[in-house]
Amino acid sequence: MRRYSAFAIAREALRHHEGWDRAWRSPAPKARYDVVIVGAGGHGLATAYYLGKNHGIRNVAVIEKGWLGGGNTGRNTTIIRSNYLQDPSAAIYEKSRSLYETLSQDLNYNVMFSPRGVMMLAQTEHEIRGYQRTAHANALQGVATEFISRQKVKELCPIINIDGPRYPVLGALWQPRGGTARHDAVAWGYARACSDMGMDIIQQTEVTGVTREGGRVTGVETTKGPIACGKLGIVVAGHSGVMAERAGFRLPIESVALQALVSEPIKPVMDVVVMANTVHGYMSQSDKGEMVIGGGADGYNNYTQRGSFHHVEETVRALVETFPIISRLKMLRWWGGIVDMTGDRSPIISKTPVEGVFVNCGWGTGGFKAIPGSGWAMAELMAKGHSPLAEAFSLDRFREGRFIDESVAAGVAH
Ligand SMILES: Cc1cc2nc3c(=O)[nH]c(=O)nc-3n(C[C@H](O)[C@H](O)[C@H](O)COP(=O)(O)OP(=O)(O)OC[C@H]3O[C@@H](n4cnc5c(N)ncnc54)[C@H](O)[C@@H]3O)c2cc1C
């Protein structure tokens, strides 16, 4: 595939842009692959990419029931950070954040990674203690964060009202190399690179069953017919429970809708990402100028992939004390995605009771930031049967009581 470069753009400008290749092929499925990945979200595509790049496994199909990146990967608010509390989490999220730093160069696709800095506001005494503890843990883990004063918060983000009557800002956990990236571009960049390695991305095809023989996977049933495979990766976020059932096992996971909204575009007012966990809202400004606002998850299990007005009202009401300017903004659109939540708010990257079937799920409200690191670890697990980054996230932890409690770090939607 022809590389993207400034020279290529100039050349195509002179040729009316008629010489570009298709970014990825849309092939008919083959009868057999070494590896089938279900789900062409960021995590599924990244798994396929690192299987090819790091382990030389390229006879791979990624099967997607809708369009690639059309699940949570194309619906999130794009926050990237690695300031988690527990060691295994910090390791995988920091691996991921560091891969984001050079992802555009690695994929030859501009994913618009913008390490503009992420702050998590402390608005109660309890939060101050919690975030100071995380900052100390991060120092030991080699993750660059610091606890900053309320004056520094105001300096970094002048539109914040730090003297709110109910929830004044008391400080913040600050990660200067956290930030955002363009979510669609992450999916598109991985898809293009996978296609370039000869992998097949098969869209508009649902995996409806998993075939087994003697406790081992032999293939999948799809709406385009059966496909045989040596190994199967289930990477379907909010549909993990459904797919696990089709493969013959159960997962300790719940699916709920999570929502977000954007305002009309305005001139630049904010060049950091701010999360306010006490009031349950967070905000950043997109390159187009829209204020990107995330809210909470529904309080009950469901598969509704759409927004609802009461969430918009609740989230904006929560944020308006800290960001008075949003009271004068018109909201443009809102939407929802189906996220997969585990009890300890940590992901699952694991072998399963069916030999040859691997599962990657449970990223809940915060898996966009983890896409490169998760793909790296899942590919290693599938290729070698073991991955140091994934070890702590196995399914066994629920049986053995080795929970990785991230309910503070991942408690708010992000
Ligand atoms: C509103 C919202 C805001 C968020 N904000 C952030 C944020 O700021 N930062 C952050 O880090 N994370 C955020 N997240 C979470 C993040 O989006 C997800 O954790 C992440 O995108 C999950 O990626 P994935 O590849 O696992 O899943 P998805 O992108 O959902 O991909 C799974 C794919 O599997 C497909 N699929 C399902 N079943 C089948 C089947 N049977 N056959 C074939 N295909 C199937 C689906 O169609 C889908 O495309 C947010 C999520 C939402 C909804």
Search tags:
414 residues; alpha/beta; FAD/NAD(P)-binding domain; D-Amino Acid Oxidase, Chain A, domain 2; eight-stranded mixed sheet; 11 helices; 25% strand; binds flavin-adenine dinucleotide; FAD; flavoprotein; EC 1.5.3.24
Structural summary, described in words:
By secondary structure, the chain is an alpha/beta fold. The protein folds into two domains: 27-79 and 183-252 and 344-400, FAD/NAD(P)-binding domain (3-Layer(bba) Sandwich), CATH 3.50.50.60; 113-180 and 255-341, D-Amino Acid Oxidase, Chain A, domain 2 (2-Layer Sandwich), CATH 3.30.9.10. 29% of the residues lie in helices and 25% in strands. It contains eleven helices and 18 strands. The protein has helices at 6-14, 42-55, 87-101, 103-107, 125-141, 150-156, 183-196, 240-247, 309-319, 371-384, 396-400, and strands spanning 32-38, 60-63, 79-80, 118-122, 146-148, 171-175, 179-180, 200-202, 207-213, 216-222, 225-234, 254-265, 273-276, 281-285, 290-297, 331-341, 348-351, 357-361. The strands form three sheets. Strands 1, 2, 8, 9, 10, 11, 17 and 18 form an eight-stranded mixed sheet that branches. The chain has an eight-stranded mixed sheet with strand order 5-6-4-13-14-15-12-16, sandwiched between helices. It has a two-stranded antiparallel ribbon with strand order 3-7. The mean pLDDT is 95. Flavin-adenine dinucleotide (FAD) binds at residues 38-44, 63-66, 70-73, 75-79, 206-207, 235-237, 239, 243, 258-260, 294, 337, 339, 363, 365-369, 413-414.
